[in-house]
Design brief:
Blueprint lengths: L1 E4 L4 E4 L7 E6 L10 H19 L3 E8 L15 H9 L3 H18 L7 E4 L4 H13 L3 E3 L3 E4 L35 E6 L17 E3 L1 H13 L3 E7 L3 H16 L4 E7 L2 E3 L15 H6 L4 H9 L7 E3 L1 H19 L10 H12 L4 H12 L6 H15 L17 H15 L3 H13 L2 E6 L2 E6 L1
This protein binds one RNA strand through helix 1, helix 6, strand 13, helix 9 and helix 11.
Length: 460
RNA sequence: GGUGGCGUAGCCAAGUGGUAAGGCAAUGGUUUGCAAAACCAUCAUGCAUCGGUUCAAAUCCGAUCGCCACCUCCA
């Protein structure tokens, strides 16, 4: 299997550190709000990666964090904790609020057929581990304390893993970010003191004073706790490269003296083809719920995401989603007419498909292979269907639900009666009457299709 | 100003040196009472623009234009 590694900025052969087992960590959501469809693209990507690793024959141990404290509104450490701010603005309890958004996040993931991670860990459940990490850094003389909290002194340590080609070069004259309490703009917060005179909803005792952990720390502490000091793959959104992941590496490697993660794999941005802006602050977010409310199947959105390469940008437009929905529906119709039990996996097609997927998760080519197979007249339909279902282990489009025998429609008696009536009217050549009845059936949510075998119904 | 990236048909999108994948839409046809669905066929001498390198360029180089992201909240 080959994967793009942000460290080397190239596609490299991937082999696990330990035999057949892959240990993978994904930066999860910050649960101060809903996750929009751009966020969900990143999690769909990590799911695709996990499924592809499994398809390649690896066993995957997958951990994901839930950030429920400490993620500031400003990566330069000068902002406010997003959780606290959102909770205060809504007049809610921060603890209850994060639980709600966390639950909603996993509900959306389930909707998109994103497999649950083996381990889900919350920052607030790992305060002790984070404090212990800071102490190790302090023992090595890599930290300093100021009025704001404990900071990592980036001038005192050079990490083994070099992500610095992506390091933000702060331009003195242009940057609107001051160093604040920091000695260097590259330094980052490990522990923030609670503001004097104000009690935070979330705060803990520490050897340095009451406060809360810096955002980057949780990922280091939890990933190493569950996956070891060096593990195989770390994933996240492409925006995490310059600050969050760079800092994770620095602090982790400063503590262990070992390479933190071997592969860093990042998902590209979802953007909007129209002028609609997608940002949380602009309030222009689009949620999975919005897509569902428009009547789309979540699998149509997943299909759309798979037609683009995970690293590149993807323009979301309703027109593109329409196209994806239609394409998916045609695949489903094809499967519904097939008998899986009579089908065998076609080796030539599945190996081409596998080749594409194992080459840095090339789902666009994988899907193109699926269509070539679907339209190949030389292939027995049942065999094609069986092979497509095999492909779906990676694609995760829940195609098995649409194979014949699995989608028995529950047609109301009323609709069946109308269908019988229409057939009779047709036989009597009363076409106006037959069309009127067809309209009634349509109004009840079913489409009438006249096939060579007689009339058939499809759920609209 | 710095950094990363992008510009391929009406839409989405593959394609990093060898002559433009795939899907949607559209058009024509088969079928149908008519539709729909299905099936067949057609659909970029062209890859933002202009130069250059090469036997060969969407792919490499230079310039120009436009767009996006990060450096200020984002995955």
């Amino acid at each position: 299997m080959k994967l793009y590694n942000s460290i080397t900025k190239s596609v490299e052969p991937f082999t696990p550190l330990e035999n057949n087992r892959v240990r993978m960590y994904s930066c999860g959501p910050t649960v101060y709000s809903y996750q929009h469809i751009g966020n969900l693209r990143t999690y769909t990507f990590s799911d695709l990666l996990k499924r592809s690793l499994q398809f390649a024959g690896f066993r995957v141990l997958h951990a994901m964090n839930v950030t429920d404290v400490g993620h500031l509104t400003d990566d330069a450490d000068a902002g406010e904790d997003k959780i606290e701010r959102a909770a205060r603005a809504a007049g809610r309890d921060a603890w209850a609020m994060t639980e709600i958004f966390k639950a909603k996040f996993f509900e959306d993931c389930a909707g998109l057929n994103i497999l649950p991670p083996d381990i889900v860990c919350r920052a607030t459940d790992h305060i002790a581990e984070q404090i212990a990490m800071i102490q190790k850094m302090e023992d090595k003389g890599l930290t300093y304390c100021n009025a704001d909290g404990i900071y990592f002194d980036t001038t005192k340590f050079n990490p083994i893993t070099d992500l610095s080609n992506m390091r933000i070069q702060a331009s003195e004259e242009y940057s609107r970010v001051g160093t604040g309490e920091k000695r260097s703009s590259y330094d980052f917060s490990l522990w923030k003191f609670s503001p004097t005179g104000a009690k935070r909803q979330m705060e803990w005792e520490s050897p340095w004073g009451v406060g809360f952990p810096g955002w980057h720390l949780e990922c280091s502490a939890m990933s190493m706790k569950y996956l070891g000091e060096t593990f195989d793959i770390h994933t996240g959104g492409i925006d995490h490269i310059p600050v969050h992941h760079t800092n994770e590496i620095i602090q982790s490697e400063s503590v262990t003296g070992k390479t933190f993660a071997k592969f860093w794999v990042h998902a590209g941005w979802l953007s909007f083809g129209d002028s609609e802006k997608m940002s949380k602050s602009a309030g222009g977010t689009l949620l999975l719920d919005n897509i569902l409310a428009h009547g789309y199947d979540p699998m149509a959105f997943r299909y759309l995401m798979l037609t683009a390469h995970y690293r590149g940008p993807l323009k979301f437009t309703w027109e593109a989603l329409d196209g994806a929905a239609t394409a998916l529906s045609r695949i489903r119709d094809f499967l519904a007419e097939s008998d899986l039990s009579q089908g065998n996996i076609i080796e030539s097609y599945i190996s081409t498909f596998r080749e594409h997927i194992l080459n840095d998760l090339d789902t666009p080519k994988g899907i193109a292979t699926l269509w070539t197979l679907l339209k190949d007249n030389k292939v027995k339909k049942d065999d094609a269907a069986r092979t497509i279902i095999e492909m779906d282990k990676v694609l995760g489009l829940r195609l098995l639900l649409h194979v014949s025998g699995k989608t028995d429609l529950e047609v109301p008696a009323e609709v069946l009666a109308l269908l019988t009536e229409r057939t009779a009217l047709k036989a009597a050549k009363d076409y106006a009457g037959a069309d009127a009845v067809r309209d009634q059936i349509t109004a009840l949510g079913f489409e009438v299709m006249d096939t060579p075998k007689g009339p058939a119904l499809k759920l609209l």
